[in-house]
Amino acid sequence: MKKFLMVLVLVLVSTTMVFAAGASETASYPDKDINVYIFSSQGGGTDAWCRFLAPLMEEDLGVKIISTNMPGANGGTAAQKVWTSAHDGYTVLGASETAMFFGANNVAPTSENWHFFVAAGSGGIIAVPVDSPYKTIQELVAAAKASPKSVTIANSGQGKGWHTKAVTLEKAANVEFKHVPYNGSGPAITAMLSGETAAVSCSTGEISEYIRAGIVRPLVITEAQGETFAGWEGEVPAAAKLYPQGAFAFANMFQWLGFMLPKDTPAEAVEQFSAAFKKAMADPKTAEFAKTQSAKIFGLAGDDANTLAKNMEAVTWWMAHDLGIAKMSPESAGIPRP
Questions:
Q1: Pairing assessment for the beta strands 114-122 and 257-262 based on DSSP bridges
Q2: Taking 60 as the threshold, does the pLDDT of residue 16 lie above it?
């Protein structure tokens, strides 16, 4: 009898261990903290939106989301970190429309290799310190025409969106600026405020608080439509209307901010992450935050987000190619001209 009981105990223990092991192997996502690697510096739009959404998504996912800034290589440093980590949903890329230039800059896998979660985006802007000698965009352009490359414009990185917007303005106005790249819009704005550069090309969301405070003068919105700001009199004009030669680029290359996961991430992880993202985007606090960032909400995931990214990649890659700032030709990747 003792022998029988000992055998029965061993069988029960063994069975329990097998079930426990099986449960561990099939544990539902997520069962540990998630790491988000933000591919730009602190203080920019990507950083602001990723850090805002993280705690809202934590409420649904039930785990911590740890955000780490990892700027460099036009977003490629963080993208490669995520790409070379396990594709299990626990290593996420904090991203923006800069990811649409991965192919053009030859720094990371292109859109077909990722899932996209597109939260929101702000318009582009060229701005100067409020005490700048340039009171209008026409005055800044005239100075560049009189003395080529004398007007310095900071941007978030060569070959990225805000650099491309400034180059588009440059070509459309037939002048030459001196473009000064930084590791993100935060450092670029600081450079402008400190007088290191004459102006900055960034998003309205990244600089709106300085405009409201009367520290920064907005010169032009590098989009199809102008924009108004609290505390600033009148509408800031649209570059597409003042410089129509660049209208297509101003209208079709826009900012988006959010997350990316490798395409072969397990479906369960993608679904759970997507559900938490959508709940965070539907939270009333998100609409309030978007107002402070002068941002338009997209709230896209799944096929809608992936299609937006694929179409935008074609536009931005060909734009960069036509402006002469792309390292790789879109034709080499089989990207047709939009």
A1: antiparallel
A2: no
| Tens of pLDDT, residues 250-276 | 998 899 999 999 999 999 999 999 999
What number does CATH give the domain 34-122+254-333?
3.40.190.150
CATH architecture observed for domain 124-252: 3-Layer(aba) Sandwich (3.40)
280-301 core/surface letters (b: 16 or more CB in 10 A; e: else): bbeeeebeebbeebbbebbbbb
Closest to 73 measured CA to CA, from 39, 96, 24, 103: 39
**Domain segments of the chain: what residues?**
34-122+254-333, 124-252
Query: What pLDDT score was predicted for residue 230?
Result: 86
- Which contacts qualify for 247-253: CB closer than 8 Å, 24 or more apart? 249/164, 249/165, 249/168, 249/319, 250/124, 250/165, 250/168, 250/222, 250/223, 250/224, 251/223, 251/224, 252/315, 252/319, 252/338, 253/97, 253/161, 253/164, 253/165, 253/312, 253/315, 253/316, 253/319
Sorting pLDDT into bands at 50, 70 and 90, what band is 338?
A: confident
pTM: 0.84
Position 184 scores a pLDDT of 87
Contact 321, 330 (CB under 8 A): yes
Which helix (DSSP H) or strand (DSSP E) does residue 120 occupy?
strand 114-122
Q: What are phi and psi of 157, to 5 degrees?
A: 150, 135
